[in-house]
Specification:
Length: 312
């Protein structure tokens, strides 16, 4: 058991749920049983729910209501459907945290007594993952910009986190296929009162033209979901990354075309290329802590990461 993890305490036969699109393919399905044992939750189970991308609001409401009404179901981690669940079922929650209300998304569902609680954990998990590879003075030192390909839940949280960072970039550029998401992001950052310039682009196909002209040292993030839930990449195979860029692929599984393209240019362009593995670790450990009301210090996260690496 990791140092700082609690002893098991009546949590047998408890269910945590995973709401996504292709949950069976996630490493967490192999990792969770080992994590549960390490965290003193030997009877806890993880159950996946695959929800189509075009699911009607009724599907989300039924899922949340069933979770609320079954005492064995402790909560859930939500991927892909974070904004849809908030839109369809926010009224079913007794409490939603500040960023969840501000951004209109729910990525973590938990219970406190008879209260159903929704959280938007992405700013926390994105920040934890970013700070592992992003120098505290990176943007001041390089003059780099940020290009976030995708303005859904993850992209919105990353933009919000970076705009509020002490070493904030001068400009954050976000693309998406959905104009409504871009307008929501603009509104969110405007209400946050940051001084960072936000530029948005509605892009239905490849976003190579947005990549052109970025200064050296820029951060380029694939937050589009392409390469995991859907095939492809937001960039074409011949897109050239800025010299010295930090390239962050949020996915760690799937076809990963974006990641492979960046790795092919890594040596020639001096890129730092990071996949989504540590983002995965932080995302899951933070939500598990919320669902089971556990402490989750850095030493516990490091031990969970070690355990997960054995089955990656």
């Amino acid at each position: 058991m990791p140092e700082g993890a609690p002893e098991a305490s009546g949590r047998d036969d408890q269910i945590m749920e995973f709401v996504g699109v292709s949950t069976a393919g996630s490493s967490i399905m192999k990792v969770f049983p080992a994590w549960a044992r390490a965290l003193g939750l030997p009877g806890a189970r993880l159950v996946g729910h695959d929800v189509p991308l075009d699911a009607p609001p009724r599907a989300y409401r039924e899922l949340v209501a069933a979770m609320r009404d079954d005492p064995r179901r402790r909560g859930a981690l939500v991927t892909t459907h974070k904004i849809a669940i908030h839109r369809a079922a926010a009224d079913l929650f007794d409490e939603i945290d500040d960023f969840g209300t501000l951004a209109g998304e729910i990525s973590s569902i938990s219970k406190r007594g008879d209260r159903l609680v929704g959280h938007a954990k992405d700013p926390i998990t994105a920040g934890l993952a970013l700070e592992e590879f992003l120098d505290p003075r990176h943007f001041a030192r390089t003059g780099g910009r940020v290009l976030c390909l995708g303005a859904g839940g993850a992209g919105t949280a990353i933009a919000w986190y970076l705009a509020r960072r002490p070493d904030a970039p001068e400009e954050i550029i976000c693309t998406d296929v959905d104009e409504q998401r871009l307008r929501a992001l603009e509104d969110l950052l405007a209400r946050s009162g940051t001084g960072t310039k936000l530029t948005t682009h509605l892009v239905k196909g490849r976003a190579d033209h947005v990549l052109d002209g970025l200064p050296p040292g820029s951060l380029v993030v694939n937050a589009s979901g392409l390469g995991k839930d859907r095939p492809g990449s937001p960039l074409g195979p011949d897109a050239a990354f800025p010299r010295g860029a930090l390239v962050w692929e949020l996915n760690y599984r799937g076809e990963l075309d974006f990641l492979h393209a960046a790795r092919a240019q890594r040596e020639a362009a001096g890129l730092t290329v990071v996949d989504g593995w540590r983002y995965f670790i932080h995302g899951w450990s933070q939500v598990i802590a919320e669902v089971f009301d556990l402490p989750m210090g850095p030493e516990v996260v490091d031990e969970l990461s070690r355990i997960a690496a054995e089955v990656r």
